Amino acid sequence: MSGGVDSSVAALLLKQKGYDVVGIFMKNWDDTDENGVCTATEDFEDVVRVANQIGIPYYAVNFEKQYWDRVFSYFLEEYRAGRTPNPDVVCNKEIKFKAFLDHAMSLGADYVATGHYARTELRDGKTWMIRADDQNKDQTYFLNQLSQEQISKVMFPLGDLEKPEVREIARDHHLATANKKDSTGICFIGERNFKEFLSHYLPANRGEIRTVDGEMKGYHDGLMYYTNGQRQGLGIGGPGGPWFVCGKDVQHNILYVAPGKDHPALYSQGLIAENVNWISGEPEKKVFHCTAKFRYRQKDRPVTVHILPGNRLEIVFDELEWAITPGQAVVLYDFDTCLGGGTISTVLNQGTDASIDFVDSAPI
Amino acid sequence: MDPIYLDHAATTPIDPKVLEVMIQTYQEVIGNPSSIHSFGRQARKVIDDARHKIAKYIGARSRDIVFTSGGTEGDNMAIIGAAMAHRKSGKHIITTKIEHHGVFRTCEYLEKQGFEVDYLDVDRTGRISLDDLKSKLRDDTILVSIMYGNNEVGTIQPIREIAHLLSEHQALFHTDAVQAFGTVDMDVKDTPIDLLSMTGHKIGGPKGVGFLYIRDGVTLASFTHGGDQERKRRAGTQNVPAIAGLGKAVEQVAGHLSERISDCLLARRSLLGALDSSGINYRINGNPEHFLPQVLNLYFPGTNVETLLTRLDLEGIAVSSGSACTAGSIEPSHVLTAMFGPDAAETRSSIRISFGSGNTPERVAQAGTVIARCVHDLVESGKAGETL
Question: A216-220, A303-307, B72-76: which range is least confident on average?
């Protein structure tokens, strides 16, 4: 239980169905300020209130060390490499459905339930992950790295509900979190300024901003602050714009921009993904057609998948894709079934001048 | 199995005789002890009777007892009061690394106010060294605060020796006797303690009441301002029924001290017996000679304290450890850290079991068997590592 409305309602629904429910709050990050105020305290207070309303025991568990070692270090490492990581995916894989699941199992639990919007289905002796009924809230994108063993022990009580229904259930039962604002952004950064947060952990090396034609446009504050497709915060203007980030040269610390949203440098034909995970086993066919998401809350795109050795994939898009970003997750779907996914490592054949050495860009 | 309460060091169930006195007081005594009419006099008599019983038990005079809201207030009143009243004689204070937060954080606060505080180390059994104390004493030391018996590991400090050592020095001697009070015979005539704080709810009394003993002639700066109650040392209308209950609780301790001690020792033996016969690996954190009979701190190698405590609670066994942070998770105990060093395994894998009334040897043995089974399971799953 995070102290949010989703996990509150998930706990309530299970309790109503007659499960023996235990609420557990995870503390993964300490943001105690000079006044001793810590957001985890406020969230835990909400867990306490809701658990008492529902009538279930509640506990806390501290995974700060595990989170730091397995999620935050990865997060920094990716930024250092010029990529844009997705810590939520790794948090689900390493903390919520590993350290936490293990903790729950050692307490004698049969299942771990969360407030994620996703569903599971038992078919052919395997557990499959299915998109949530509420397509707008579906969170399978973030769950793409779960193994068969992990999801076989997981319940998603909100999978068949729409978000407004969840709020309504919470209000009907006067749950303390019924009107609590949804959390946004990366959990350990919260509402704070991202750039300032990152600057505490990684050295920011100022460098040049160049156009895809090689023209010098100005200076950036450090490559880690930029991501493909970004328009705001570049601090460059002048004729020819608006300017969009379309690539990074990490070795020479250069940020490349393209003029106009429709510039070919922002489009690509495919990608290579690494650390590929298949939730319910690797497909038998090594080449197949399915749909994919390259970022959360994006409509599915038709693609052809080529399974490569070493947990890698080559994915070729049916149509050109805009601003594919290394470090983000690519997640594959067979209609409503989430097959799994990987981390985007290379963007294929960006339409650019071949003389410019784009990071992670390779011909198809 | 019905849940079993083994956390008497956190708080105790109220003694039925205490409750009886309190209910009677609530029903029959309506006055304010400061009022001059008959109702006031009746209330005044109730608190004076309680004060007399308490004073008699610890070998003090009635006028040396000030009622407080409990241990933390007593600690604050003694430490801040002594420091502020005597700052012209010096700014140096000595305490230990294993104090309750009521003392520890009060001393940290005084450091911010310009006082200088030395925190004495303890050995691996949780005891300070008298030589260490001697060597830290300075001419400008104005206060020494050392707890009587530790609430986490039960180690008893050489209070009598410390008190005699300090009787020749200007420094006042305060002891936090909150945990020790119900199972250690204390006498301030025999042991020259200047300030002693305790609370009611650790000895079968009500929560929210305690007292501070202030030796005759010791002056403290008052930090509550208002009426002239408690000889101008603690402003605010007294909680009459709670004070009546506190008096009764102390009377119960006075009358049954050796029984209380032997009951706790019996429970302790019974629990350790169950662990021994189960064959699990454990060690006692604490001093083998100088320990409070009701506190038993155990180290279970290969377990995680949060998992163990949660598992035990789900199995109906209420025990504890260190202290929880405001977000509910368990912080490494500063006491175990002082004893074993930072990051020592003991700080991550130890729990506190504490005994009290109602803990029959049979029930405690049952609990011991469950504890052993849980520890065994967790050690096994820990050996397997993460399974996913």
Answer: A216-220
Chain A, residues 29-58, CB within 8 A of chain B, namely 38, 40-41, 43-44, 47-48, 57-58
With CB atoms and an 8 Å threshold, state whether A106 touches B381. Answer: yes
**Do the beta carbons of residue B51 and residue B62 sit within 8 Å?**
yes
- pLDDT band for A355, please (50, 70, 90 cuts): very low
Q: What is the CATH number of domain B4-11+257-383?
A: 3.90.1150.10
What domain range includes position A291? Answer: 267-362
Query: What pTM was computed for the model?
Result: 0.91
Q: Does B324 touch chain A (CB under 8 A)?
A: yes
Sheet of strand B350-354, all strands in order from the earlier edge strand to the far edge:
B283-285, B295-299, B350-354
Residue where a domain stops, chosen among A219, A243, A259: A259
Angle between helices B71-85 and B101-112 (to 10 degrees): 30
| Residue A246 annotated to the active site | no
* pLDDT confidence bin for A351, thresholds 50/70/90: low
Distance CA A132, CA B34 (A): 68
Domain final residue pick, A120, A154, A172: A172
pLDDT exceeds cutoff 90 at B324 = no
Across B90-101, average pLDDT: 97
pLDDT, tens digit (0-9, with 9 covering 90-100), for A259-286: 889 988 899 999 999 999 999 999 999 9
Query: Hey, are the CB atoms on B386 and A107 less than 8 Å from each other?
Result: no
If you average pLDDT over residues A142-163, what whole number do you get?
Answer: 97
Domain range B16-253, CATH architecture: 3-Layer(aba) Sandwich (3.40)
Contact check, Cβ <8 Å, A62/B381: no
Single out the residue of A86, A88, A68 nearest to residue A343, CA to CA.
A86
Cβ of A44 and B387 within 8 Å?
no
- In this structure, the strands spanning A267-278 and A337-348 are antiparallel
Cβ atoms of residues A61 and B313 within 8 Å: no
Closest-CA residue of B relative to A64 is B329
User: What residues of chain B, 328 to 387, have a C-beta less than 8 Å from chain A?
Assistant: 328-330, 377-378, 381, 386-387
Least confident interval from A200-214, B37-51, B96-110, B182-196: A200-214
Nearest to B306 among A48, A61, A150 (CB): A61
Q: Hey, is B192 helix, strand or coil?
A: coil
Label residue B131 exposed, middle or buried (CB < 10 Å: 0-12, 13-18, 19+). Answer: exposed
Catalytic residue among A187, A246, A290, A338: A187
Sequence-ordered alpha helix ranges (H) in B178-222: none
Q: Domain of A149: which CATH number?
A: 3.40.50.620
Mutate which: A42, A95, A106, vs B, most B CBs within 10 A? A106
Residue A34 — very low, low, confident or very high, per pLDDT cuts 50/70/90? confident
* Whether the complex's predicted ipTM surpasses the cut of 0.85: yes
Per residue in A203-223, pLDDT (tens digit) is 989 999 999 888 899 999 999
Query: How close are the terminal C-alpha atoms of chain A, in Å?
Result: 45
Give the Å distances, CA to CA, from B56 to B64, B179, B188, B190, B252: 11, 20, 10, 13, 13
At A164 the pLDDT is: 96
Cis amide linkage into residue A242, ω under 30° from 0: yes
Residues A247 and A286 in one domain: no
Token pair 């610390």: residue: A253
Looking up tokens 């109220």 gives B14
